[in-house]
Amino acid sequence: MNLLLRSIRSLIKNRFAASAVIVLAIVFLVGVFAPLLATYSPADTAPKDRLLAPGSLHYFGTDELGRDIFSRILYGTRVSVGIALVAILLSALVGTFIGSFSGFIGRWIDQVIMRITDVLLAFPTLVLALALSAALGASIVNAALAIAVVKLPIYMRLARTQALSISQSLYVKSAKTFGVSSGWVVRKHVVPNLLTPIVVQITLDIGDAILLIATLGFLGLGAQPPTAEWGAMISTGWNYLIDQWWYPTFTGAAIFITVMAFNIVGDGVRDLLDPKSGE
Amino acid sequence: MLRLVRQRLAMLVLVLFGVSFITFLMSHVLPGDPAAALAGPHPSKEVLQAIRDQFGLDKPLPVQYLNYLNDLIHGNLGTSIRSQEPVLTELMRYFPTTLELITFAFIFAILLGIPLGVISAVKKNSFTDYVVRLFAVGGVSIPLFWGGLVMILVFYAKLGWFPASGRLDIELTTPETVTGFYTVDTLISGDTEAFFNSVKHLVMPAVALGYVQLAFIVRQVRSSMLDALSQDYYLTGRANGLSKRFLIIRYGLRNALIPSITIIGLSFGSLLGGAVVTETIFDWPGMGKYVTESILGRDFPAIMGFTVIIALAYVIINLLVDLLVYSLDPQTRK
Question: CA spacing 20 to 30 A to A230: which of A208, A245, B73, B101?
């Protein structure tokens, strides 16, 4: 009985994660095949078809310039998810490099680098991203850069802690005692042990990065019109909320579903690797 | 305790120096032409040169930084391009408004987050647990601006339960400013109608903003509660026949709350970031709305001033949380 109950539960739990993975797969496919799936061009305006309600011609309706919202959301996947991925990967790469360097070298360099992370963490994430994008000038590339900077301290600290504990671990010490070259140690012990927590952090951060990109776009600091980016679309769409509810609603739902899927997968990956939260 | 306060204050000063350095980089180094950024749209050559002279932008960067630091210490955050008023004066005017919003958002997140976290831990891996956790993940997945819009669509446009914008209906008189919190000021002036009206205005923005932090609180309380419930004292209590409810509340919750307070406290500061979006959507006249309007109006000094003040508020709030946690924990209290 108990066993049956437990397997049913784990099935529900796995179904969560499994459906999230399926959603993500669909999101990626949509991004890649956007030109094939789109029923209209995302940029073509049609003044006499403006603000049409959802129907068989325009699945999600049209916007104030008569552009097809469904097609714009499909193309927007490339921008929003793509840019978020690039920003996080950049941040993880640079942060891991600096952080592990800091952990291995130690001494004053480590102190300085850690104080830098303190300072970066002294701003609420969104506020720092907002100020950086404003300073660099509003564009999607600068928004991505800002997000990479904002996420940097997380990876620096994570990599540093890992590097410290790995370099102090018994297996690395004994490997050194046996005269194994440090290149070998780094490749065979340090990198694999460092990678797992970084990858977990990346999966957890992508959802957040998509939200940040969209929020900057919404505030007018990210993608500029006429780029089909989710946040920027809602930024113009919310003026039409009361009478043309479909305009911001479908676009927001696209963000919500995508980010939710990333977060559920991220949580699942973390639980999988964290023995404490297991059954 | 006193030593800790002194230590933390020293750290605070160090961090604030760092913060000033970053905001300096953002305002003086990153923009291609800082003078153009300060001048606003379409400045003439003479205006640009005047700004360069006024702010010493032709001087070497270290000199500029010292000048900048001197200004900051004297509370000079520059002048808003749109209003020509000192940015600090404007921000101080909006600060209580934002503080009221994030306070209510925080209260909402705690009142709902702690019980949900406890239920989720007690009913670990049950259907209830999954529903609670899914609800919590929703909080960190929903774009704040869109969540707010959907709420307006449903609770204002369709159902008409709550007002969608502002702090008070226009036909009601604004209370005399004492605290800057309308909910408090209306009570002081004895205007109960305005009090209930201001609470009504707070509901939607506070819920939208608080929902994001709810997720972190539920996750944290759940995990500390799971820890507490697997301790020997809980099992001993159960073996001695004490009721589950008594043990969960009296022992489990009390022990689970100590590690959670840090996360819960930090979430208060994080609300400052979300307030930018929430205030814009709900037309809440605080610092967040001020900064989005500044972005639209390309009012660069206002954006940078806002960044400095928010970082300062964030750092101070987190310091207070830190000291509070420290004084609450019996192990570190002495």
Answer: B101
What structural domains and CATH numbers belong to chain B? 32-76 (no CATH), 92-333 (1.10.3720.10)
The DSSP-derived string for A118-131 is HHHTTS-HHHHHHH
pTM of the predicted protein model:
0.87
- Angle, alpha carbons B113-B114-B119 (nearest 5°): 100
Please, which residues have CB within 8 angstroms of residue B139's CB and are 6 or more apart in sequence? B211, B212, B213, B214, B215
Tokens linked to A102 = 């800091």
Quick one: how far is CA A207 from the chain centroid?
4
Reply yes or no: is the peptide bond before residue A248 cis, omega within 30 of 0.
no
d(CA A226, CA A41): 12
- What is the identity of the amino acid at B252? G
Task: Give the pLDDT band (50/70/90) at residue B265.
Answer: confident
Q: Which of residues 149-208 of A touch B (CB under 8 A)?
A: 207-208
The single residue listed with the structure tokens 């796995």 is A14
Query: Which of A257, A268, A247, A276 is closest to A69 using CA atoms?
Result: A247
Total residue count of chain A as it appears in this document: 279
Nearest to B270 by CA among B207, B319, B208, B209: B209
**CATH number for the domain formed by residue range(s) A2-41+60-273:** 1.10.3720.10
Give the residues across from B80 on adjacent strands: none
Mean pLDDT over B171-189 rounds to 82
How high is the pLDDT of residue A277? 46
CA distance B149 to chain A (A): 7
Amino acid at B43: P
All structural domains of chain A with their residue ranges:
2-41+60-273
SS3 label, residue B86: strand
- For residue A5, pLDDT over 70 is answered with no
A130 and B21 within 8 Å at the Cβ level: the answer is: no
**What per-residue string of b and e applies to B58-78 under the rule 16 or more CB within 10 Å gives b?**
eeeeeebbebbeeebeeeebb
Q: Can you read off the two tokens belonging to residue A108? A: 């004053």
CB pairs under 8 A between A and B: 157
CB of B120 within 8 Å of a chain A CB? The answer is no
